[in-house]
Design a protein that fits this description.
The chain is 44% helix and 20% strand. It comes from Paenibacillus nuruki.
Length: 317
């Protein structure tokens, strides 16, 4: 298993929020040349492609891609983006020293803690490579919108946004680690064909999926397939499919102006009424209530990274 070097950032104290935004580019835009001082930056790709060179490495940041930029490394746009290219950006400060581990060393430590059920060590850190991709962005998008909202609200305590930033980094770490853990379990506990079924559903989630269609594709009886899902995941096949589809619904509600009817059609729900009923049952609120939850968000359409001076208390902590 090839794993990139991992940055381990201590979170026994919450990460310190610095600044954030959502950027949408004009035609021909390129990121300006920058170098961070003591802060870290996380970029989450939303639409089109952002071309960034960090040090000697060039990245094409698309929807679902996550880039972690560390201090003292120069980065800049090496190619122009199309109009409408967009991403979230977030700067934060660790309050303790960070570590870097080789991929092999990190995997060895990860599975030794998981197998012995001694998670104390890994609990103290968020652990991320410089670049990775996520199949779904529903929770990261929700958390980024909460961070945007909270950072523009006059809370009595600055820790309100600090804890949200920390929660986002924990969420990104969890989403990064899950495939690594699943790949390891593939050789230990999980049936290989079942993992192939999960991947096939994920890849085809925008299609009109039914339990019978999945069963036929893999030469299973539909009832046997559902028993397999309940044994391995604790849920039925249709609930798993609906959970993935509703993750996409939440993402579209946060990032587009599409109507509920349009989203239902795009994701092959029976109709918008069925989607609304399912969403309310699974999420606990209607799609409209979910979309209206975050109101004080601001889009940065002028510059990716305004030159905000670093607060003195963050430099001295």
């Amino acid at each position: 298993m090839l794993v990139k070097p991992i940055s381990k950032i201590n979170i026994e104290r919450p990460l310190a929020y610095f600044k954030c935004g959502q950027f949408v580019s004009d035609e021909g835009w390129k990121h300006k040349r920058m170098k961070l001082e003591k802060d870290y930056e996380v970029i989450i790709g939303l639409k089109e492609v952002i071309y960034l060179q960090v040090g000697d490495t060039q990245y094409e940041i698309k929807h679902g891609d996550v880039l972690l930029i560390k201090p003292d490394v120069e980065y800049f746009g090496y190619k122009a983006s199309k109009a409408g290219a967009s991403f979230f950006w977030l700067h934060f400060f660790p309050r303790d020293l960070t570590q870097t581990e080789s991929g092999d060393e990190f995997i060895s430590h990860l599975f030794s803690t998981l197998l012995t059920e001694q998670k104390n060590e890994i609990n103290h850190y968020v652990c991320l490579p410089d670049f990775f991709s996520l199949p779904y962005l529903d929770k990261p998008i929700i958390l980024m919108k909460q961070i945007l909202d909270t950072s523009n609200t006059s809370y009595y305590s600055t820790y309100a946004v600090d804890y949200l930033v920390t929660e986002l980094m924990i969420e990104l770490t969890d989403k990064y680690l899950q495939p690594l853990i699943h790949n390891e379990l593939l050789h230990k506990e999980y049936n290989q064909k079942f993992m192939q079924i999960l991947e096939w559903i994920r890849v085809n989630i925008y299609h009109d999926l039914t339990v019978q269609k999945v069963a036929d594709t893999f030469c299973f009886n539909a009832d046997h397939l559902t028993r397999l899902f309940k044994k391995n995941l604790g849920m039925s096949t249709i609930r798993y499919i609906n959970t993935l589809k509703l993750s996409l619904v939440k993402e579209l509600l946060c990032t587009s102006n599409a109507s509920i009817k349009e989203i239902a059609y795009q994701l092959h729900f029976r109709d918008e009424k069925y989607l609304m009923k399912l969403f309310k049952n699974y999420v606990g609120m209607t799609p409209t209530q979910f979309r209206d939850t975050y109101t004080n968000t601001y889009m940065n359409t002028v510059t990716v990274d305004p030159d905000i001076p670093i607060p003195k208390h963050l430099l001295t902590e």
